[in-house]
Specification:
By secondary structure, the protein is mainly α. It is built from five helices and two strands. The chain starts with a helix and ends with a helix.
């Protein structure tokens, strides 16, 4: 009987020690969180926002690149417009002449118009692909410079996080103007 009481007391003692350990650990964690909370609150996260779209549209390097590309492709664009005007004129002439043309002449001119149209569409696709490729080349350099400027501003001004392209942004965290100034305007 005495051994059962001793056994029960020792089991109870172990459970109290375990409970006390858990209680002491919980109290320590609670005390640490109370002490650490003001430190976390004092160190607020500094967040900034940059509008990549605005940089690629309004910055001086972007405007210069756009003007350069447009000048580069102006001749091809004019040639495409002339080709489209020629096709339109020939189609109008065909519509006027169609009633008096023989069947073979009508089919021949329809084929010529279809060939011209196919050629125009092919040249427009090539033009658009070349234009897009050239634009991407020019603007990728601007994006690299903008990224470098953003990193420099983040380091100098102590930003923890800079977001690009968000749904809604407060003007107080928008640093796009600073980035554009760093890019030269």
């Amino acid at each position: 009987m005495k051994s059962q009481i001793v056994l029960k007391l020792s089991t109870f003692g172990r459970s109290v020690v375990r409970s006390n350990r858990a209680l002491v650990l919980a109290a320590a964690l609670g005390a640490m969180s109370v002490v650490a909370a003001p430190a976390v609150q004092a160190q607020a996260t500094k967040i900034g926002f940059v509008s990549t779209e605005r940089i690629l549209r309004d910055s001086k390097p972007a405007k210069a690149a756009q003007a350069k590309i447009e000048a580069e492709f102006k001749g091809r664009d004019n040639a495409l417009q002339a080709m489209a005007n020629n096709l339109r004129n020939q189609a109008q002439k065909f519509d006027k002449d169609a009633p008096v043309l023989s069947e073979s002449d009508r089919v021949k001119r329809q084929r010529q118009l279809a060939d011209l149209d196919s050629e125009l569409q092919r040249k427009r696709r090539e033009f658009q692909e070349d234009f897009n490729r050239r634009r991407n080349e020019e603007f990728s350099g601007i994006v690299e410079k903008a990224d470098a400027a953003i990193k420099k501003i983040a380091q100098q001004q102590g930003y923890d996080l800079i977001i690009q392209d968000a749904v809604t942004v407060s003007p107080r965290v928008d640093i796009t103007d600073q980035v554009m100034k760093a890019l030269g305007g």
